Amino acid sequence: PIIFVLNGPNLNLLGTREPEIYGTDTLDDIAGHLDDRARAAGASIDFRQSNHEGHLVDWLQEAQAVGAKAVLLNAAGYTHTSVAILDAIKAINVPVFEVHLSDPHKREAFRHLSYVSMGAKAVFAGHGAKSYELALDAALQV
Ligand code: DQA
C-alpha cells in the first residue's frame, strides 16, 4: 500500500520557520521518519510539498488515480482558505487525514476554521512532527 503525504505552503522552510511554534525538524527529517515507519509496516509513502494550491488539488486527484490507500494532508495556510482543496478531498474516495504540527485551535481565530476538516476522516494536530506519525498509524489501519 502507498500513502501520499502532501504538504502545503511554507512547510519547505521547516527547521528555521518559527521554530518556537513548528519545532526544529526539517521537512526532510519528517519524511525520513515517516518512511522508516511506513516500511516497517510494509507500506510506502510518497512525500511531497508545494507552495501552490493547485498542485495540492492535482495530487489529491492523483492519489485516487494511482489507488493510494490514504492521504496525509498538511495544507498549511490553505487549510483555512481553500474550498478547492475541500472539494478535491470530497471528490475522491481515498481517506484523507488532516495533519498540523501546531494546534490551530490554540492560535489566532482565523486558524480555527478548517475547510480540510470538513472532508477529513480525522485530524492530528499539536504534536509537532509526531502529528504525522500518529496520522500515519491511523492511515495504516484503514
Ligand atoms: C500548520 C498550521 C497552519 O495554521 C499554518 O498556516 C501552517 C502550518 C501546522 O502544521 O501547524 O502553515 O498547518
Structure in words:
It catalyses: 3-dehydroquinate = 3-dehydroshikimate + H2O. Homododecamer. There is one protein chain. The model has no long low-confidence stretch (mean pLDDT 97). With 142 residues, the protein is an alpha/beta fold. It has helices at residues 19-22, 27-40, 53-65, 83-91, 130-140; strands spanning 2-7, 44-49, 70-74, 96-100, 122-125. Helix content is 36%, strand content 18%. 37% of the residues are buried. The chain is globular. The protein starts with a strand and ends with a helix. It has 5 helices and 5 strands; from the N terminus they run βααβαβαββα. The protein has a 5-stranded parallel sheet, with helices on both faces. The protein has one domain: Rossmann fold (3-Layer(aba) Sandwich). It binds 1,3,4-trihydroxy-5-OXO-cyclohexanecarboxylic acid. 1,3,4-trihydroxy-5-OXO-cyclohexanecarboxylic acid is lined by residues 10, 74, 76-77, 79, 100-102, 104, 111.
